[in-house]
What does this fold into?
Amino acid sequence: MLPDTAEIVEVSPRDGLQNEGRPVGTADKLHLIESLVRAGVRRIEATSFVHPARVPQMADAEAVMAGLPRVPGVIISGLVLNRRGAERAIAAGCDELTFTVVASEAFGQRNQGQTIEQGLLAWAEVAAMARAAGRRATVMVAAAFGCPFEGAVDPARVEAMVRQVLRSAPEEVGLADTIGVATPRQVMDLFGRVRAAVASAGTGRAAMRAHFHNTRNTGYANAYAALLAGATVLDSSAGGVGGCPFAPRATGNIATEDLLFLLDGLGVRHGIERGAVAALDPWLAGVLGHAVPGQLGKTDAWPPVP
It folds into this structure.
């Protein structure tokens, strides 16, 4: 059964830009975030607090946070991978810390230099830090459906990881299809396992969140399947931009504007003006130096505007 509403987490300023070869300036990042806020977006992953040598596009994390006008009701989150990142995110004023644990040993080593067990221990530490600082703490299990180096990921492994991260009482627990290999049946199965884990955790009812890439054109079908399976929070990126520097040939996230069109057709409320997001596509293409994957910005409004 579909939910009445879905919460959108806009990830274009972070996941959308991190893999781009052309440097994107702080002023352009701030313009993007401010435009998204005006369109009605109320949760934005603004940056990541990682080593600039690893992800050069995120070298200005503190400058982005310092330049953002704080709007009541808008939650600004930062991606962190370890204690140092969490310290920076808290000091910079993030409302929410999003932590990533990776369901693949090989990808975890390449992405953040951690084994699965080290990632789980680091998450517990970061969750405690966030709670002590009065910030939200959310956790995403990355490469939950497949790894570019190890292949398919065992759903039982992901389920076990979810049960462990729930011990630290996250606000949300999410699954990320980092390389875009999931299909709707797999999504239904794995989110069903997460739903059962959340129900039996005894640490509060964490919301379920989904993060899909559209590498093989299944991202929107997977978002629909996740909603049917009980997810109420969906990540997306304006223009469908994105990718992972540590995953070969990983392409963009599902496009926010295209996802909103789907949600509108399903009768799922989201509170965002999809036309305003679609209108960003030409500007994004100019900033990045290439066309963006999102479709709504390339076609006429529907229903037609009188």
Observations:
- Residues 7-298 form a domain with the TIM Barrel fold (CATH 3.20.20.70).
- The radius of gyration is 18 Å.
